[in-house]
Amino acid sequence: MGSKLIIDTDPGVDDAFAIALAAVSADVELLGVTTVFGNVPLTSTTANARRLLQLCDRPDVPVAAGASRPLVHLNKRGSSHVHGNDGLSGHAGSLPEATRPLESLDAVGLMVSLLEASDEPVTIAPIGPLTNIAALLAAHPGIKSKISRIVLMGGGVARGNSTAVAEFNIWADPEAAHRVIAEDDVPCVMVPLDLTHRCAVDSAWLAKLAASGPLGRALDGLTPDYLAHYRQVLGFDGIVMHDAVAVAEAISPGILRTETYPVDIDVTAGPARGMTLVDRRALPIDPTGRPIEVAVDTDLDGLREFVLSRLAGGR
Q1: For residues 271 and 122, what is the distance between their CA atoms, to the nearest angstrom?
Q2: At CA 21, angle to CA 1 and CA 13, rounded to 5?
């Protein structure tokens, strides 16, 4: 097996593509999947993650449920208007029932167990709100040496989606995002909206995925509500695979080009709450936050082909 990976997720259609990408990649050792509230409530994100792993013929991968709400301020708005009421365009029931029971450990407990047992540092790919990761780093600071890097999907340099300036995963729990991104010292790569939107795939790409076999057909079958939303956002028939872009970087380091900038998170109660403040000045004066890698570019066609070829060749 190749690089070791833990995915923390809130499936979500783009999460489904991301989980499948890791689950079917022979050069990835997917140690575990942890779930968090986000696109839909925790009960649904957890059920979806388990069904997706079953779809990928990966009942060997443990799943543990994590935070059902943000660290500090309760936030009742999810993204069901984007992903459908069940998180998968109303088609979660089309996926096979999971055969592996849910872990008795919670998300943080499973991550600690997997990290402690690993003989080498592990990449963590959080592709939902950062609540579980903040709790892990706060409660188990000694475990940080077992984390090689955190590759997260979240934030925006020049745009938002939940608000004019805030991306959903950060906006859903800004305090957790601040703890992970702006305050800690674990190496961090932020994959923002600015890049994920440029990696959007069109209906021709989805048709190739659907024609590739049972896995591709099942994944394409989860996209109707998501496609309807992004038809309005993009102006063409296509979807944005936000989380799959981040997981591509997690499993193939360097597939995204990054630049290092100081990044802070707005945790105030005002209209900028959840904004990622990316300081791109050549000579920052008293920058806040901390320097992290921000993904800014990729070979767009190469990235799309990387994801498609792996999903098409999957189980």
Answers
A1: 36
A2: 150
Contacts of 301 (CB under 8 A, 6+ apart): none
How many C-beta atoms surround the C-beta of residue 185 within 10 A?
A: 9
**Selection from 137, 145, 139, 121 nearest residue 178 by Cα:** 137
Q: Are 192 and 169 in contact (CB under 8 A)?
A: no
Kindly list the distances between the CA atom of residue 193 and the CA atoms of 42, 128, 167, in Å, as whole numbers in the listed order. 23, 13, 7
**How many Cα atoms sit within 13 Å of 290 on the Cβ side?**
15
Burial class, 119, CB count within 10 angstroms (exposed 0-12 / middle 13-18 / buried 19+): exposed
- Split into its structural domains, the chain has a count of 1
CA angle, 95 then 311 then 177, to 5°: 80
Cis peptide upstream of residue 12 (ω within 30 degrees of 0)? yes
Mean pLDDT of 275-300: 94
Print the domain residue range for 106: 3-312
pLDDT digits (tens, 9 = 90+) for 188-206: 999 999 999 999 999 999 9
Phi and psi at 159, nearest 5°, equal -155, 165
* pLDDT given for residue 285 in this prediction: 87
Which member of 83, 178, 229, 242 is catalytic?
Answer: 242
Cα 150 to its chain centre, rounded Å, is 11
Tell me the residue ranges of DSSP E strands in the chain. 3-9, 28-35, 63-65, 122-126, 147-153, 188-191, 201-202, 238-239, 256-265, 276-278, 290-298
pTM of the predicted model as reported, rounded to 2 decimal places: 0.97
CATH number at residue 307: 3.90.245.10
178: annotated active-site residue: no
